[in-house]
Amino acid sequence: KPVDAMLYCAVNAGLARSFIDGHGQGLFRAPRWLAQAAAHYYARQADERWVLAGYNFRNLKDGHWEWDESVASMVKNEFFCSMAEMTTWLRDHKMNGRDHMNVTSKLEFMIAELSPKLRTYMDLVVRPVKNMTEESTEELEKRQRAALMDAFGMEPEAFDEAWAEWVEDKK
């Protein structure tokens, strides 16, 4: 039933977001894109048709859930947000449907291709919230760049190249 599937997706998404933000069993906060990507990735494991990221109900059409095709098209046309750009997104950053697909695909790439080092990345990138305030864009970017390098040995630009190649090979 669609209502049951929507509920399973919402529960998966909420749990994933909470687990990512709570990584390390403290008052931590993951970067905006990472928490959203995890929510979508695990909701799609339940039923990809009901992950409504960046969509209005009235705009849904058949096949709206076929993200792999859309992501491959974004890569082909070089129309995606870069990892360097994503590292600057604060918690209030407004993501569009394309952004949601993009970040989810990048997390999927991490899980599929970089999983031996994913725990290291998570330990480095999900950090305590100091004084209950948001980090500056510069602090957020610096932390994520360092985590990408220390965990995966990649700058954001190299990450995007490896991800784009993976997306193209996946077709």
Supply the key terms.
171 residues, 2% strand, two-stranded antiparallel sheet, 8 helices
What would your notes on this structure say?
This protein has helices at residues 2-21, 32-47, 67-76, 83-86, 97-113, 118-125, 137-152, 156-170, and strands spanning 28-29, 127-128. Helix 2 (32-47) packs across helix 5 (97-113) and helix 3 packs across helix 5 (97-113). It is globular. The chain is built from eight helices and two strands, in the order αβαααααβαα. It has a two-stranded antiparallel sheet. Helices cover 62% and strands 2% of the residues. The chain has 171 residues and is mainly α. The chain starts with a helix and ends with a helix.
Q: Return the structural class.
A: mainly alpha
Strand proportion, as a percent range, falls in under 5%
What count of helical segments does DSSP give? 8
Strand runs, count:
2
Measured on Cα atoms, how large is the radius of gyration? 16 Å
If you average the pLDDT, what whole number results? Answer: 86
Shape: globular
Low-pLDDT windows of residues: none
Q: Tell me the helix content.
A: 55-70%
Précis, in short:
The chain has 171 residues and is an all-alpha fold.
Topology:
Blueprint: H1 2-21, E1 28-29, H2 32-47, H3 67-76, H4 83-86, H5 97-113, H6 118-125, E2 127-128, H7 137-152, H8 156-170
Antiparallel strand pairs: 1-2
Helix pairs in contact: 1-2, 2-5, 3-5, 3-8, 5-8, 6-7
